[in-house]
Amino acid sequence: MAIALAMPGLAVAQQGAPVAQALASFSAKVQAQGRLSAADVANPAVTSSYFDQSTGLTHTYLQQRVNGLTVFNATGAVHTDQTGKVVFFNQDFLPGAAAAAPAATPALTPEQAVGAAAKSLSLPQPVALRRLVEARAADGLLFNNGGISEANIPVRLMYQRVGDKLVLVWNVTIAQLDQQHLWSARIDAQTGRMLDRNDYVVNELATFRQHVLENKERRQPLTTAAAAAAATRAVRSPKGTLGAPNSLTVIPVPFENIDLSPRVVVPFSSANPLYSPYGWQVGDAKAPSGFFADSYSFLSTGKQLTRGNNVAAYDDNMTATSGSGNVASSTNSPDGGATRDFDFPFNQPQGPRNADNLAAGITNLFYWNNMLHDVMMSKGFDEVSGNFQYKNLTGQGLGNDFVRAESQDGSGRNNANFSTPPDGSSGRMQMYLFDNTAANALTITGASSAAGTYRFAGVAFGPKLTKKPLAGKLVLVNDGVSADGGDHACATPFVNAADVAGNIAFIQRGGCPQLTTLNPRVNNQFAPKVKRAQDNGATAVIVFDSLATTGLTNFGGADTVGIRIPAIFISGADGFKLRAALLAGGTLNATATLGPEFDGSFDNGVVSHEFGHGITNRLTGGPANASCLNPATGNQTMGEGWSDFFALWMTTRPGDDGKTSRYIATYDNGDPYNVGPGFRRKPYSTDFSKNNYTYAQLGTTTGKFQETHDVGEVWATVLWDLNWQFIYKYGYNADFFSATGGNNKMLKLVLDGCKLQVCNPGFLDGRDALLRADSVTNRAANADLIWNVFARRGMGYSAVQGDRVNGQPRVTGIANGFDLPPGSKVIALANKNGAVVGGALEAYPNPAQDQLTVRTQLSSAAPMQVTVLDLLGKTVLRTVAVPAARMQQTGVELNTSRLASGIYVVRVTTSNGTYSTKVSIQH
């Protein structure tokens, strides 16, 4: 994996008059605000500047510079039209920076900084570290990988902003050999202490599968039929029945997974000639002779593999540190042969490592990455703005950064991630295998009270059951210190170590306060427990949940303690049943059998989600700055939300409706696609009774969200609402390359908004960027609609974004606002059939049974009166006066238990008029 050496900025002379003019305008406008002096904005580093043909804007992105060094988290931008007029500018520069900056003289050498970074990141110390590129420290030096990084190591001297001070730091970039992290770490140049870090790898582990356990009320038992379907999937397209020359057999856009569509033949001519003029695959006749020769050495073998200008897709299952050699390999990808016929049968019960199943998954991954490239390029994620391509045909932007799409990645399980270094270095998509918990079978024999077959889930670390089977006698551990009889494995040696030795250790989850850091329900206790059992001679471990009401989850995380025995997890309900039998003196023997795993390369929603991280990280703050969306817990980061939106958008089909529940990763989770729950806490729906998130869902108190995936879920909810309002206004267009249709207009708006928003945006920054984008692209034709949608979710005119610490918007200090700006028009937000679903008036659930909630975004100088009438106009239910603020925030709940089943009219009277909507009551 090559990582481009980050440079401090582009010389104004090289960029020409437009950039010089933009800088002059930026300086003048910032100084006019009164917070910054001329010295504060003098000579900023231009990290990126490009002309956006789709909007006619020039986007210029900046970093503050002091003493010739850039300031890491002090950014700005100026966006100008073709006349040079400033359309929008922003800055987060530090006032009085020169006085706040220490001398630019480091005590640590750059070599010492690499060693300090390795130590802080718990990596081995570098070996035979040497400089490959000599340059000024301010411009950046380049070291070899030192045996600790997958790529060469860039190091650069800069300042880090901490409050109102600046600290001199070395910025060190290390791509971990296990491929789980690509760190950009700031090391104090005087002390060697790590001051800050960010990870270019956006990892899904914190939520994927974990929320299925933590939100046990969401997880309903599958019916027998649904469980059987999830366990087996379907057999699709045996070899030879569908294949054709110059084609791929895949799950086509816009279908989310194989449960929704059989695989079909897609010709290579599907590559859009505007966005992939040389085709998708190296053997396309449209590519000039020798076009790929300097990157894909396998071409000399005559094979036709899943490689092209936009993506290289391949099998990465063999080792956790297989490295960049995979791209050049001629044996780790399906070969379409001389006719380029990429048709491979798929049969889920045969397992993902079946040669044909593997080839089918890689082919699907290749196709979807290419489609994502072309669709997103049509909406503005192009070469100059930092998209992923081997060669940039316009000569703008940096090439050599095609997506490395790694199927069945061997570095983890039950997960997916995307790494987005700055433009010029490849994005990497890692798709993993997922446990098929519906088909996993733990067979228990012995005591009749517990004998039977149980489901189990796996862990991301330790040996796989296929290599080290789990079979033997079950022994409940006794650590002598923990509650409930000592079965939590909190200390070693065990009191019953002799009994545990040579058998399967049975351990209860949690219960070890000394191991709990943030949340007693997370998996940071799991690996130490397994390690203790291993130290006491156990051959394997079964952990059962400490709550008897929970379902299954899969445990991620890396093995940092040296685990050599297999481990699995079972539910609390099953675990306490087995525990009771053991405590009663029974003997139990266990055997675990894996069901055929699910290949994440077939979950097209997750593939789209991962690609989405590359889009937003390249567009926000410019293609040379991939550090503007820091996904740390407690930050108001929306990256996961945009990625969920892209996943939903790419898999929206003709005839869909916004009120229908949509889920993320039902295939990977083994769920029926229309039942969920997938990997999110609530389904995505415009129906407030299914998803009632508002801005105030973010926070740190009980029930509030601060983890980055949870935060993103709220952001995706409001984007999804807006997407459907665009569709209801402009229609749906199944041609994803078109500029017409509400779905296409909305995707374009989102990408334009990312280019215009501030570095490290909060929710209201993101809202305002969409309003700016609509102003630029549509002459603000949708401003009222955007305001109404955001106000419905508490992100209206008077909403408060909350605290901002060191440039990062936090989840604290947030306040809902359900109002509109002065002069804005209240819009009755519609559904597919034109009925009101929000804005002016909404009543839910609809149909209702015994309770109906009525809510409105209308304003009123006097309290509102809510009345329910039958179709003859007779009043059947009336409320007392309800304050307007309450109606905007929570609404009013009506008891409809005494109303007969039928159709009714809900009427709300305000000081500005009377509004009504129809509801159905069904008992």
From TrEMBL:
Its cofactor is Zn(2+). Residues 46-93 form the FTP domain. One of its GO terms (molecular function) is zinc ion binding. Residues 320-355, 407-426 are annotated as: Disordered. Keywords: Hydrolase, Metal-binding, Metalloprotease, Protease, Secreted, Signal, Zinc, Zymogen. Residues 472-577 form the PA domain. Residues 320-334, 408-423 have a biased composition (Polar residues). One of its GO terms (cellular component) is extracellular space. GO terms for biological process: proteolysis. Transmembrane segments: none annotated. InterPro entries: FTP_domain (IPR011096), Fungal_virulence_M36 (IPR050371), PA_dom_sf (IPR046450), PA_domain (IPR003137), Peptidase_M36 (IPR001842), Peptidase_M4/M1_CTD_sf (IPR027268), Secre_tail (IPR026444). Residues 844-921 form the Secretion system C-terminal sorting domain. SUPFAM superfamilies: Metalloproteases ('zincins'), catalytic domain (SSF55486), PA domain (SSF52025). Belongs to the peptidase M36 family. This is Metalloprotease.
